[in-house]
Amino acid sequence: MDEGKTYDFFRQKGFIPANAESYSLFREYERCSALQEMSATIIAAWSFAYNGLYKNIHDYLCSVYFYRGKPVYFALHRPRAAPEYSLQQIIDILYDLSLEAGLPFLQIKFIENRFLTEYEALEGYTIKTEYFDDDNEYVYRVEDLLELSGGINFYKRKRLKKSFDNPNLSVRPITNDTVKLCFQIEEEWCRTKECSFCESFSGCEKKAMEIMADIFDDRIHTGIFLYDGDKAIGYVICEKRDETLSYLYFGKSIVQDDFVYLIYMMYKTRLPDVEYMNMNEDMGNLGLRMFKQHLSAHELWRKNICTFTKG
Question: What is the pLDDT of residues 151-184, one digit of tens each?
């Protein structure tokens, strides 16, 4: 399959690139899912890495992605109001487009468990459902995140103590005027990392952070910097979607153990009244997986994949 020709085909069919300018449109649709991968911020910030295109088809926001080493796949955002067209009709349209584009199947990703039955009940297809552990999103109850007692929180206590014992540490809010200071922290963090290894998981986070700065809105997003004296050494950016759910989108700390402190202080001081923090996947990165597994008690929310074929 020639991905360039497939990409051009969807462009000719009216799909347009997802980027910072399309952020506001995706915000209108994002409440149809609790998965971070379906949030407007993640789509806008990372679409460069996935070559994302989108089109509104009968009030469904349909995105198609071309990520290296993976099959071309779609993600669906449902309309808020009762749709005139059924999911069956939308899948039929996308399936026909996929075959016309030269794809062997239609693949829909990032399906929550609560919606899976509806996809699996669609008629006229052989449907394969799967999920991968590397794709599961780590979700923490905030009350568990802030709890420090017990064996399960040994890792957290150990790292937090180092930060608590440093009298020079302080946190300050990120605002529209100061968000670009995150670039300096990213630059310093990157100096000690190998670009090819880092980018191999999902692309350059520094580039995604530049887009994040363009769409950052301190009326929507919540962020804090970590200072050691007068020097900014870390940051974290989150969003409270509602009373139940928040997302942790971006974060870095020059001192590795202080990243736990950043997360703790974010939810202790800025978002204590939300029930969950969704921290997204570990991408198969062993270091990231160990960090997320030992941060606190957590749940794993599946991102299901449905592949549709005929014949």
Answer: 999 989 999 999 999 999 999 999 999 999 999 9
pLDDT in tens, 199-208: 556 668 888 9
Query: Residues of 136-166 as b/e, b for ≥16 C-beta within 10 angstroms?
Result: bbbbbbbebbbeeeeeebebbeebbeebeee
pTM, rounded to two decimals: 0.92
Spatial strand order in the sheet of 304-309: 16-17, 53-57, 60-65, 73-77, 106-111, 304-309, 126-130
Amino acid identity for residue 63 in this structure: S
Q: Which two tokens stand for residue 63?
A: 């995105």
List, for residues 72-94, the tens digit of each pLDDT value.
999 999 988 888 899 999 999 99
Segment 182-188 shows an average pLDDT of 91
For the residues 252-281, what does the mean pLDDT come to? Answer: 95
Instruction: Dig out the tokens for 69 from the structure.
Output: 């080493």
Q: How confident is the model at residue 311 (pLDDT cuts 50, 70, 90)?
A: confident
Determine phi and psi for 152, rounding to 5 degrees: -65, -20
- HEC assignment per residue over the chain: CCHHHHHHHHHHCCCEECCHHHHHHHHHHHHHCCCHHHCHHHHHHHHHHHCCEEEEECCEEEEEECCCCCCCEEEEECCCCCCCCCHHHHHHHHHHHHHHCCCCCEEEEEECHHHHHHHHCCCCCEEEEECCHHHCEEEEEHHHHCCCCCHHHHHHHHHHHHHHCCCCEEEEECCCCCCCHHHHHHHHHHCCCCHHHHHHHHCCHHHHHHHHHHHCCCCCEEEEEEEECCEEEEEEEEEECCCCEEEEEEEEECCCCHHHHHHHHHHHHHCCCCCEEECCCCCCCHHHHHHHHHHCCCEEECCEEEEEECC
How far is the first Cα of the chain from the last one, in angstroms, to the nearest whole number? 20
